[in-house]
């Protein structure tokens, strides 16, 4: 197993993909009342900053959040967004 290194998305699209895959489904991210401090810190700090969250890592398996805890219910807004994104990605137009 290789050593992990800090992960920070290289652009907004990559960040959106990571957020949708991990944060949206995590119990630590209460989108409406108490956003995850990890996600907020990754937006404000560079990966070489000593305060950058240690939980966002990557290795040969790809990027992930080591604090991920699955099972968060999706908000209505999240579900609408994910449905819209899936249709867009499949080329379906309304």
Give structural notes.
With 94 residues, the chain is α+β, with helices and mostly antiparallel strands. It has one domain (5-90). Helices cover 35% and strands 11% of the residues. The protein has 3 helices and 3 strands; from the N terminus they run βααββα. It has a 3-stranded antiparallel β-sheet with strand order 1-2-3, with no helix packed on it. A hairpin with a 2-residue loop joins strand 2 (56-59) and strand 3. The mean pLDDT is 83.
Break the fold down into its secondary structure elements and pairings:
Elements: E1 5-6, H1 12-21, H2 37-44, E2 56-59, E3 62-65, H3 76-90
Antiparallel strand pairs: 1-2, 2-3
Which percent band covers the strand fraction? 5-15%
Largest sheet: 3 strands, antiparallel
| Number of structurally distinct domains | 1
Helical content band? 25-40%
- State the shape: globular
Q: Provide the low-confidence segments as ranges.
A: none
Structural class: alpha+beta
- Total strand count, please? 3
The N- and C-terminal alpha carbons lie at a distance of 46 Å
Strand order of the largest sheet: 1-2-3
Number of helices: 3
String of helices and strands: EHHEEH
- Average per-residue pLDDT, rounded, comes to 83
What is the gyration radius calculated from CA atoms?
14 Å
């Amino acid at each position: 197993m290789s050593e992990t290194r800090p992960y920070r998305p290289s652009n907004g699209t990559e960040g959106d993909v990571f957020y949708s895959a991990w944060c949206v489904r995590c119990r630590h991210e209460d989108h409406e009342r108490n956003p995850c401090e990890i996600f907020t810190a990754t937006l404000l700090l560079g990966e070489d900053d000593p305060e950058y969250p240690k939980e966002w890592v990557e290795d040969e398996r790809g990027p992930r959040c080591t604090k991920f805890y699955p099972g968060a219910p999706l908000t209505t807004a999240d579900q609408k967004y994910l449905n819209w994104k899936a249709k867009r990605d499949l080329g379906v137009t309304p």
